[in-house]
Amino acid sequence: QCKWSRKGFIRTRWCITDCAFDLVNIHLFHDASNLIAWETSPSVYSGIRHKALGYVLDRIIDQRFEKVSYFVFGDFNFRLDAKAVVETLCAKATMQTIRAADTNEVVKLIFRESDNDRKVMLQLEKKLFDYFNQDVFRDNNGTALLEFDRELSVFKDRLYELDISFPPSYPYSEDSSQGKQYMNTRCPAWCDRILMSHSAKELILKSENDEKIVIYDHIGPNVCMGDHKPVFLSFRIAAGAGKPIANVHKCCVVQ
């Protein structure tokens, strides 16, 4: 369930207008089972991602290279706190547990409204998250659910993120005619992010004049882009901003 895999990161160093910074593309571990993610708050998968991201950040700031501002971006696989989300979305529901006949293992959870003819609100299986009203993840870009997006809070002293104003980036339908529809495999979440060091934050929020053009958004809101919607960060960087790179050739040493 929580084995290390092919997922990892790649770090490159850039120097633009005499300003050096690192770009780190990352892919962290996913939630293998909705049922296991639901058991604890935070989930066991959240803990695995925490350790992996901490490892990457430690590598970025080690002593081999001169320290510069950095951006970390990609599929972090950050998920909403599943237990808290389910308890909120199904606050007035009753839960039915279905177990496998041979192993007695829980294979399905069904949440029904207490009244209204016991309408099914949510069905939860290993790879099924079937909530009856997807609009909750789209209305106002789903930002009412950002309170359950908690995985980054552990790194608030090391990483900064601009305010999110786009809907959860995963898991979208791969049907070309269903560009805005989520699949019912996972709870929608902001898996795809662009984070930065606090020195990089200062770099993008400063400009030579009062004009600050910074956009943090997703691509293709109404068309099929695959199961993830790409996320981008657009900003201006002033010539000479940040820390000039003194030893450019050192960034090319293979370790």
Low-confidence stretches: 251-255
- Continuous helix count: 5
Structural class: alpha+beta
Q: Tell me about the biggest sheet?
A: 4 strands, mixed
The CATH architecture of one domain can be named as 4-Layer Sandwich
**Helix/strand order, N-terminal first:** EEHHEHEEEEHEHEE
Report the helical percentage. Answer: 10-25%
What is the CATH third-level topology name of one domain?
Answer: Deoxyribonuclease I, Chain A
- Spatial arrangement of strands, main beta sheet: 1-2-3-8
Assign the CATH superfamily of one domain.
Endonuclease/exonuclease/phosphatase
Percentage of residues in strands: 15-25%
Task: Report mean pLDDT, rounded to a whole number.
Answer: 90
Outline, from the CA principal axes?
elongated
Q: Can you tell me the CATH class of one domain?
A: Alpha Beta
- Rounded to an integer in angstroms, the radius of gyration calculated over CA atoms is 21 Å
Cα separation of the termini: 30 Å
Strands, count: 10
